[in-house]
Specification:
Blueprint (H helix, E strand, L loop, with lengths): L12 H11 L20 H7 L3 H7 L2 H5 L39 H13 L10 H6 L3 H8 L4 H8 L3 H10 L2 H11 L12 H10 L4 H9 L9 H16 L5 E5 L6 E7 L10 E7 L10 E4 L29 H13 L9 H9 L1 H15 L10
Antiparallel strand pairs: 1-2, 2-3, 3-4
Helix pairs in contact: 2-5, 10-11, 15-16
Length: about 375
């Protein structure tokens, strides 16, 4: 199916520039210094350090000592100054503990440096004939190897080369790709019958801001630490309210039994350039909730000055002005209202904010185009 034409033919160079922006030819953090971006908004090395999962989990494993809340506690004590129990906090904000030798790096830091050296190797270096070796493997051997992979890894393998794509398409049942779509997007409800779940799933993945974060949501990791009763009661009450009386145009669903990983959808407000789109969001709720704010990130690409190319949302209540009175539903309502009333004085994407202030018509045209291209997969089937 051909792409839906944009509303105005006079977008010109601005549309070319912003289309190039979403293709992410180079990492917007290091500008390609650490290697190729592989179509992502951010390269693997920068993502590893800025949105570290393991370092955040090491902080969470010590939550009983830092937070001082157990089932028998009142929960009124102030947390320690060094306490931050959020997921994926940028590494420069984390205080990495040293080992017994205060001059020696910690195990986490040592492993991080090792991964840095491995990932930052130039991708243009030859692999000593390994690539030719894998190309010569018979299909039976490849299918045996592929049988050990999960659904998400299978999709990634299908994008390596045309041969592997054709092999997996012809030997993988549609139920496998449908299972991947249902696990990654449990709130995805196509309005038409899906005949090719691989293409449909590929369109959803290509519409995501960050495949690395999408894989993390697929795996749903959590820290093995004792959950406080305050968090449990609070989230149980919020889940009940979201089911009985959900906000208009908003849905949210917990993805794991620990209520750490959530997915939400927001319908584009009527009268805005996002009207008709369904935007998926990924929510991570720390064990310190509601004392610490959740991490909310757009999974669906969106053209907005307060949403970064990685999907991060520039909402002060999620960073500096968090309040115990705020709930997941109230946060999602704030995000929805941000779509119609962006704040451009301080924003995630200054170029988009400048376009919003100086040329509103072009901004609306591009935002509407992105909505049609990335946020309407339940209606349209886009080519890969």
């Amino acid at each position: 199916m051909a792409e839906r034409p944009i509303d105005s033919p006079n977008v010109g160079q601005d549309l070319v520039v912003y289309n190039h922006l979403q293709k992410s030819s180079s990492c917007y953090m290091c500008n390609g210094y650490y290697g190729s971006c592989f179509g992502e908004q951010i390269c693997q090395t920068c993502h590893l350090f800025l949105y570290s999962e393991e370092l955040a989990q090491s902080v969470q494993e010590d939550i009983a000592l830092t937070m001082g809340i157990e089932d028998g506690d009142s929960g009124n004590d102030e947390p320690a100054d060094s306490f931050y129990n959020g997921f994926q906090r940028p590494v420069h904000d984390l205080q990495i503990e040293l080992t017994v030798d205060e001059h020696a790096p910690s195990k986490d830091l040592a492993r991080r440096l090792q991964l840095l050296s491995e990932i930052s190797v130039s991708r243009s270096q030859p692999f000593d004939g390994d690539s030719d070796y894998f190309q010569e493997l018979p299909p039976e051997v490849l299918l045996t190897v592929f049988s050990y992979l999960d659904e998400f890894s299978l999709w990634c393998v299908s994008k390596v080369c045309t041969r592997w794509d054709q092999l997996l398409r012809s030997h993988t049942p549609q139920t496998t790709w449908r299972k991947l779509a249902q696990k990654c997007w449990p709130l995805y409800e196509p309005l038409k019958q899906v005949d090719d779940w691989h293409s449909d799933t590929s369109a959803m993945i290509n519409s995501s801001s960050c495949i690395s974060c999408l894989r993390r949501m697929f795996n749903c990791p959590h820290a093995e630490c004792q959950e406080n009763s305050w968090r449990r009661r609070r989230l149980r009450h919020e889940v009940k309210n979201l089911k009985s009386d959900p906000p208009e145009g908003i849905r949210a669903l917990a993805l794991d039994s620990h209520w750490c990983h959530w997915q939400a959808t927001i319908l584009g407000p009527a009268g805005s350039p996002f009207e008709g789109g369904k935007f998926f969001l990924y929510i991570q709720i720390p064990y310190g909730y509601p004392m610490t704010p959740p991490v909310v990130r757009f999974l669906t690409k969106i053209f907005h000055p307060n949403v970064s190319r990685h999907g991060d949302i520039g909402l002060d209540s999620l960073h500096y002005n968090w309040s115990l009175a705020l709930t997941i539903a109230k946060v999602l309502i704030s995000v929805q209202s941000l779509l119609t009333d962006p704040f451009c004085d301080v924003c995630m994407e200054p170029d988009i904010a400048q376009l919003y202030n100086n040329d509103r018509q072009t901004y609306n045209t591009i935002a509407r185009y992105w909505t049609h291209r990335f946020a309407m997969n339940d209606i349209l089937s886009w080519p890969n």
